[in-house]
Amino acid sequence: MTGKDSIYATEQQVKDFSFDANVVEVFPDMIQRSVPGYATIVSTMGKLAGQYAQSNSNLYDLGCSLGAVTLSMRRNIAKENCEIVAVDNSKAMVERCKMHLSGFKSDVPVNVQLGDITELDIENASVVAMNFTLQFIPKDQREAVLTSIYRGLKPGGVLLLSEKIKGETDQQDNLLIDLHHDFKRHNGYSELEISQKRTAIENVMRPDRLSTHMSRLEKIGFKQTQVWYQCFNFCSLVAIK
Ligand code: GEK
Description:
By secondary structure, the protein is an alpha/beta fold.
């Protein structure tokens, strides 16, 4: 059973954030209270996966955590002979994800793997989902990861990419950050929790600007990219091959 996120509720020597067993325990609560529209994003990614899934292909959930997107995709796939490959490089997440998925019945096979997406071969893919994962990949490796996804996608296949983004100017960025912090306050996080989490995450998660995402995707070959969701500094897009 998972619980309420109180990881940064007490004053502490803040270490870099990692997806360890403590985070796994509270992850659903943490992500739901921290990412505006998380439930909408996950369910819509499932709908999009259902729409773009092709028969005899793979669907990937990269940085799957506890498998929320995998479950949502699995509910919506109506094509024959599809397999979902769910990958995460946190052992604690992968173990819990396997347990969690086994609680739901489905005809669509899921292969949950412990692995680093910077080293993964993407093959025969109709859908590749990255729900708030690219932001944790070192900036100088992001283009290579996206290029490998592009190559592994079938024609007509899609990348479903959600990211926390940086505002285009410092002023715009501060505006988005303030709105996001208000959202967290509204969801019960204290000033101390907000500020300690910010310290913990700043060396680990480095958001790009939306314009950086768009131009990089275009350079790689995605000619049709549509932002379908944005609230504050969180956005989600579909890029079609
Ligand atoms: C959800 N998609 O609930 N290789 C594999 N996994 C990685 C890597 C890497 N190089 N780097 C980070 N991760 C999920 C939420 S959380 C987002 C995704 C967040 C994994 C990491 O272990 C974690 O589980 C996930 O990416 C990011 O829809 O917590 O903000």
